[in-house]
Amino acid sequence: MDSQALANLARIGQIKAEPRNDAEIVRMLGMARTRLADAQLSNLSMEGRFTSAYNAAHIAALAALRWHGYRSENRFTVFLCLAHTLGWPALRWRVLDAAHRKRNLAEYEGYIELEEATIEELRRLADELITDVSAMTGL
User: Which CATH topology does 3-137 take?
Assistant: First the structure.
Protein backbone atom coordinates (compact mmCIF):
# COMPACT_ATOMS: atom_id res chain seq x y z
CA MET A 1 0.00 0.00 0.00
CA ASP A 2 1.15 3.51 -0.72
CA SER A 3 0.90 5.52 2.49
CA GLN A 4 3.00 8.36 1.02
CA ALA A 5 0.46 8.85 -1.78
CA LEU A 6 -2.34 9.03 0.79
CA ALA A 7 -0.35 11.54 2.86
CA ASN A 8 0.18 13.63 -0.28
CA LEU A 9 -3.55 13.58 -1.06
CA ALA A 10 -4.23 14.74 2.50
CA ARG A 11 -1.62 17.48 2.17
CA ILE A 12 -3.38 18.92 -0.89
CA GLY A 13 -6.82 18.59 0.70
CA GLN A 14 -8.22 15.74 -1.40
CA ILE A 15 -8.67 13.53 1.66
CA LYS A 16 -8.65 14.25 5.40
CA ALA A 17 -6.63 12.48 8.06
CA GLU A 18 -8.89 10.99 10.71
CA PRO A 19 -8.02 8.36 13.30
CA ARG A 20 -9.05 4.85 12.34
CA ASN A 21 -12.18 3.56 14.07
CA ASP A 22 -12.47 -0.22 13.82
CA ALA A 23 -16.10 -0.23 14.99
CA GLU A 24 -16.98 2.16 12.15
CA ILE A 25 -15.16 -0.04 9.64
CA VAL A 26 -17.02 -3.14 10.86
CA ARG A 27 -20.34 -1.28 10.45
CA MET A 28 -19.34 -0.10 6.99
CA LEU A 29 -18.40 -3.60 5.85
CA GLY A 30 -21.72 -4.88 7.21
CA MET A 31 -23.56 -2.22 5.23
CA ALA A 32 -21.55 -3.06 2.11
CA ARG A 33 -22.49 -6.74 2.44
CA THR A 34 -26.16 -5.82 2.88
CA ARG A 35 -26.11 -3.57 -0.19
CA LEU A 36 -24.40 -6.31 -2.20
CA ALA A 37 -27.10 -8.79 -1.14
CA ASP A 38 -29.74 -6.25 -2.20
CA ALA A 39 -28.03 -5.98 -5.61
CA GLN A 40 -28.68 -9.68 -6.15
CA LEU A 41 -32.43 -9.49 -5.54
CA SER A 42 -34.17 -10.39 -8.78
CA ASN A 43 -37.33 -8.52 -7.78
CA LEU A 44 -35.50 -5.17 -7.78
CA SER A 45 -35.38 -3.02 -10.88
CA MET A 46 -32.15 -2.78 -12.85
CA GLU A 47 -31.67 0.70 -11.42
CA GLY A 48 -32.19 -0.59 -7.89
CA ARG A 49 -29.68 -3.42 -8.36
CA PHE A 50 -27.16 -1.05 -9.94
CA THR A 51 -27.53 1.48 -7.12
CA SER A 52 -27.20 -1.23 -4.49
CA ALA A 53 -24.06 -2.67 -6.11
CA TYR A 54 -22.58 0.81 -6.54
CA ASN A 55 -23.30 1.68 -2.90
CA ALA A 56 -21.76 -1.61 -1.75
CA ALA A 57 -18.57 -0.78 -3.66
CA HIS A 58 -18.46 2.79 -2.41
CA ILE A 59 -18.95 1.85 1.24
CA ALA A 60 -16.28 -0.87 1.02
CA ALA A 61 -13.82 1.50 -0.69
CA LEU A 62 -14.48 4.09 1.99
CA ALA A 63 -13.90 1.43 4.68
CA ALA A 64 -10.48 0.75 3.12
CA LEU A 65 -9.65 4.44 3.22
CA ARG A 66 -10.86 4.72 6.82
CA TRP A 67 -8.70 1.75 7.81
CA HIS A 68 -5.67 3.73 6.62
CA GLY A 69 -6.75 6.70 8.75
CA TYR A 70 -8.31 8.94 6.11
CA ARG A 71 -11.74 10.05 4.93
CA SER A 72 -13.02 11.65 1.75
CA GLU A 73 -16.37 13.13 0.94
CA ASN A 74 -15.67 12.86 -2.78
CA ARG A 75 -16.83 9.53 -4.18
CA PHE A 76 -14.42 9.59 -7.12
CA THR A 77 -11.50 10.13 -4.74
CA VAL A 78 -12.59 7.16 -2.63
CA PHE A 79 -12.38 4.93 -5.72
CA LEU A 80 -9.12 6.53 -6.90
CA CYS A 81 -7.57 5.77 -3.50
CA LEU A 82 -8.07 2.03 -4.05
CA ALA A 83 -4.76 2.13 -5.89
CA HIS A 84 -3.16 3.22 -2.60
CA THR A 85 -5.31 1.49 0.02
CA LEU A 86 -5.53 -1.96 -1.59
CA GLY A 87 -3.05 -1.77 -4.44
CA TRP A 88 -5.84 -2.19 -6.97
CA PRO A 89 -4.69 -1.55 -10.55
CA ALA A 90 -6.36 1.21 -12.53
CA LEU A 91 -8.13 -1.38 -14.69
CA ARG A 92 -10.19 -2.46 -11.67
CA TRP A 93 -10.95 0.83 -9.95
CA ARG A 94 -11.73 2.60 -13.23
CA VAL A 95 -14.74 0.29 -13.66
CA LEU A 96 -16.00 1.73 -10.36
CA ASP A 97 -15.29 5.23 -11.67
CA ALA A 98 -17.40 4.47 -14.76
CA ALA A 99 -20.21 3.30 -12.46
CA HIS A 100 -19.77 6.53 -10.51
CA ARG A 101 -20.30 8.56 -13.70
CA LYS A 102 -23.46 6.53 -14.50
CA ARG A 103 -24.70 7.10 -10.95
CA ASN A 104 -24.12 10.85 -11.29
CA LEU A 105 -26.03 10.99 -14.58
CA ALA A 106 -28.93 9.22 -12.91
CA GLU A 107 -28.85 11.31 -9.74
CA TYR A 108 -28.26 14.72 -11.26
CA GLU A 109 -29.72 14.48 -14.76
CA GLY A 110 -32.30 11.73 -14.44
CA TYR A 111 -30.65 9.63 -17.12
CA ILE A 112 -29.37 6.09 -16.79
CA GLU A 113 -28.68 3.45 -19.39
CA LEU A 114 -27.90 0.02 -18.00
CA GLU A 115 -27.25 -3.50 -19.16
CA GLU A 116 -27.32 -6.65 -17.05
CA ALA A 117 -23.62 -7.20 -17.84
CA THR A 118 -22.79 -3.81 -16.31
CA ILE A 119 -24.65 -4.66 -13.11
CA GLU A 120 -23.06 -8.10 -12.93
CA GLU A 121 -19.55 -6.67 -13.36
CA LEU A 122 -20.24 -4.07 -10.70
CA ARG A 123 -21.58 -6.74 -8.32
CA ARG A 124 -18.50 -8.89 -8.94
CA LEU A 125 -16.14 -6.00 -8.26
CA ALA A 126 -18.06 -4.97 -5.14
CA ASP A 127 -17.80 -8.54 -3.86
CA GLU A 128 -14.04 -8.63 -4.56
CA LEU A 129 -13.65 -5.25 -2.91
CA ILE A 130 -15.48 -6.34 0.24
CA THR A 131 -13.35 -9.49 0.35
CA ASP A 132 -10.11 -7.54 -0.10
CA VAL A 133 -11.01 -4.95 2.54
CA SER A 134 -12.06 -7.67 4.98
CA ALA A 135 -8.78 -9.52 4.41
CA MET A 136 -6.70 -6.35 4.78
CA THR A 137 -8.40 -5.23 7.97
CA GLY A 138 -9.00 -8.63 9.52
CA LEU A 139 -12.47 -7.34 10.45
Answer: Four Helix Bundle (Hemerythrin (Met), subunit A) (1.20.120)
